[in-house]
Automatic annotation (TrEMBL), chains A, B:
<keyword id="KW-0560">Oxidoreductase</keyword>
<dbReference type="GO" id="GO:0016491">
    <property type="term" value="F:oxidoreductase activity"/>
</dbReference>
<keyword id="KW-0288">FMN</keyword>
<dbReference type="InterPro" id="IPR029479">
    <property type="entry name" value="Nitroreductase"/>
</dbReference>
<keyword id="KW-0285">Flavoprotein</keyword>
<dbReference type="InterPro" id="IPR016446">
    <property type="entry name" value="Flavin_OxRdtase_Frp"/>
</dbReference>
<protein>
    <submittedName>
        <fullName>Oxygen-insensitive NADPH nitroreductase</fullName>
    </submittedName>
</protein>
<dbReference type="Pfam" id="PF00881">
    <property type="entry name" value="Nitroreductase"/>
</dbReference>
<dbReference type="InterPro" id="IPR000415">
    <property type="entry name" value="Nitroreductase-like"/>
</dbReference>
<feature type="domain" description="Nitroreductase">
    <location>
        <begin position="8"/>
        <end position="162"/>
    </location>
</feature>
<comment type="similarity">
    <text>Belongs to the flavin oxidoreductase frp family.</text>
</comment>
<keyword id="KW-0521">NADP</keyword>
Amino acid sequence: MNPVIELLRRHRSIRSYTSEPVTDDMLEAIVRSAQMASTSSNVQAYSVIAVMNPDTKRALAAVTGGQRHVEQCPVLLVWCADLRRDRLACAKEGTDMVSDTMENFVVATVDVALAAQNAAVAAESLGLGIVYIGGIRNDLREVTRLLKVPELVFPVFGMCLGFPDRDSSVRPRLPVRAVLHRETYADDGQAEAIDEYDRTMRDYYIERTGGKRDTTWSKEMADKFARPVRDYLRDYLEEQGFRFDR
Amino acid sequence: MNPVIELLRRHRSIRSYTSEPVTDDMLEAIVRSAQMASTSSNVQAYSVIAVMNPDTKRALAAVTGGQRHVEQCPVLLVWCADLRRDRLACAKEGTDMVSDTMENFVVATVDVALAAQNAAVAAESLGLGIVYIGGIRNDLREVTRLLKVPELVFPVFGMCLGFPDRDSSVRPRLPVRAVLHRETYADDGQAEAIDEYDRTMRDYYIERTGGKRDTTWSKEMADKFARPVRDYLRDYLEEQGFRFDR
């Protein structure tokens, strides 16, 4: 263990912030750290929109189903997969960009996630708390309207930034053997690892809620995946100019 | 600046390794750090396959077009978007998992990227060097065969791990103003930022190659995006059980 690994291992989502602002110097240090993440063939296929305007944060909080921290955080970062700048670079050279492949969509989506995770680590190293906001995908057409998101840009998730008002607990993860395979992928032992994690998470929920929440990871997953959610996403992405035929 | 941000800002890909092994303790610390990254609604929709077998690494190096570091590194991690474990959890509860949405594909692809970037940071904090290997996507059917990758699992990228044999330079990134937008997405200034970065990268390539490589970022992007690459990917993903109709 070292201080960096200790920082990574201490991560927990923060959903309540003090009124202390995130300075512009902090924001720039965070974004510059994000930019140093690896990027596929240097395409740097991402952008980030820093939202501080209270009206915009309120409107985005509504998109997420009323998550109060989206409104309350001093800065909401909206992380976008972005092939638009690469298209500009191609145009500068007189080249029509090929943007209509699953490969390019995956490249941009991975690129933005790598950058965002570096940002999360940098922010936490500065004493800030963060939480990823997948809930912006509830209504990306509204997000697109609010943030004037143009063609070939896909807002993938938000991230609240702010100084933690109260701490929260570190949530246990799956046993490492469930996630780490050796030499080849093996289903052996997955069922037992899930059983073990179900017991861990049941204890965790019970302790955290004084017995009010009695559930397991498998029950949470069964509930989450029983119905399709956000099933307009493919149509939205096509509206933004992404294509998935090949 | 602090030591964590300094570590992030010092990142450069390492493609040549000493013979010093990556110990099992290191590997476990790295994967446990990866697991602490944020994950959408705790789905933890990823797996990682640690490949050390020389024959497998050689075969995977061939897939990447002969990248020698893929064979030479002591450990190659293959990071997979993975909805399979979530399906097992659903099955345990008697629920048929809905896995056929773009949303679930995006969730799993983002989840694995966040985890992998934490792994990269943890590895570098231990003095290891890393390089992401998008080249495994050259032929995922072969990767699937070699690593026995089952349904609902998508190997997104590899990552070489090892102690650096020689250092390499930190590659400049786009000006921060190209990537960071305020309140709304703005195209203003993108062309100028690209021009500035083209000059920076031209100087960087010339200095690094003693004048042999005279190119710009825009030229590199125009070259990269002029033709479709890996345009079998959508078909492959459907073979693995992913769907994109909604």
